[in-house]
């Protein structure tokens, strides 16, 4: 990674800006990129954070639940508890490295793409995928209450098999800045 790209990187560390993983530069090492990203987000690169950061960020954009990441860590022979995975995901989210996507009840996915975008949620296999492009336009949004602005609008389009009923749409207002 060059010095100039590090500068660009530090300027871009806000939840609103998205840097795809893995880094495009052929000379960059994914492990050092994870370490750099943690440091720039103000997180000490502990072994646990590095292990989970590697699992999360080395495969491009993805949506994982704490349980999914815990299973991956077990398969990678990382001795982490589910509580540690939850805590680390929460820390990453608070630092702006992940964006939370709540799809139903307590079910939460963590998205490595922190830019504003919309999702399909497949109720049959409980998977979350991005809706490609920016084809959604939300009309008729309410005025924000006085002194407030709308930070973001997230659309979750819930899917189920066509022979099991119709597609239900749900609009969820997000708190993400
Ligand atoms: Zn997404």
Any low-confidence stretches, pLDDT <50, length ≥5?
Answer: 1-17, 22-27
Largest sheet: 4 strands, mixed
As a whole number of angstroms, the C-alpha radius of gyration is 18 Å
The counted number of beta strands is: 7
Please tally the helical runs, counting DSSP H or I stretches of 4 or more residues.
5
The rough form would be described as: globular
Beginning-to-end CA distance, first to last residue: 28 Å
The average pLDDT score comes to: 80
CATH architecture term of the largest domain: Orthogonal Bundle
Tell me the strand percentage band. Answer: 15-25%
Bound molecules: zinc ion
Strand order of the largest sheet: 5-4-6-7
H and E order: HHHEHHEEEEEE
The CATH topology annotation of the largest domain reads as: Arc Repressor Mutant, subunit A
Number of domains: 2
As an assembly, this protein is: single chain
**Percent of residues in helices:** 25-40%
The CATH superfamily name of the largest domain is: Winged helix-like DNA-binding domain superfamily/Winged helix DNA-binding domain
CATH class of the largest domain: Mainly Alpha
Structural class, please?
alpha+beta
Care to describe what's here?
With 177 residues, the chain is of the alpha+beta class. The protein is 31% helix and 20% strand. It contains 5 helices and 7 strands. It has helices spanning 3-11, 30-40, 47-57, 66-75, 82-94, and strands at 63-64, 99-104, 107-111, 119-122, 127-130, 152-159, 168-174. The strands form 2 sheets. Strands 5-4-6-7 form a 4-stranded mixed beta sheet, with no helix packed on it. A 3-stranded antiparallel beta sheet has the order 1-3-2. Strand 2 and strand 3 (107-111) form a beta hairpin. Helix 2 (30-40) packs across helix 3 and helix 4 (66-75) packs across helix 5 (82-94). The longest helix is centred in the middle third of the chain and has 13 residues, at 82-94. The structure holds zinc ion (ZN). The site of zinc ion has 6 residues, from loops.
């Amino acid at each position: 990674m060059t010095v100039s790209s590090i500068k660009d990187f530090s300027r871009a560390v806000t939840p609103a800006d998205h840097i795809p993983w893995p880094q495009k530069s052929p000379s960059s090492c994914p492990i050092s990129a994870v370490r750099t990203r943690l440091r720039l987000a103000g997180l000490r690169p502990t072994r646990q954070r590095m292990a989970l950061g590697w699992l999360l960020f080395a495969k491009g954009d993805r949506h994982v639940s704490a349980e999914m990441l815990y299973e991956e860590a077990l398969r990678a022979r990382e001795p982490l508890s589910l509580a540690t995975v939850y805590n680390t995901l929460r820390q990453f989210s608070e630092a702006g490295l992940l964006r939370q996507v709540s799809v139903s009840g307590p079910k939460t996915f963590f998205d490595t793409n922190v830019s504003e975008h919309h999702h399909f949620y497949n109720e049959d296999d409980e998977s979350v995928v991005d809706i490609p492009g920016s084809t959604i336009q939300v009309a008729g949004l309410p005025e924000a209450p006085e002194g407030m602005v709308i930070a973001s609008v997230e659309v979750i389009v819930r899917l189920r098999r066509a022979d099991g009923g119709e597609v239900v749409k749900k609009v969820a207002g997000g708190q993400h800045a």
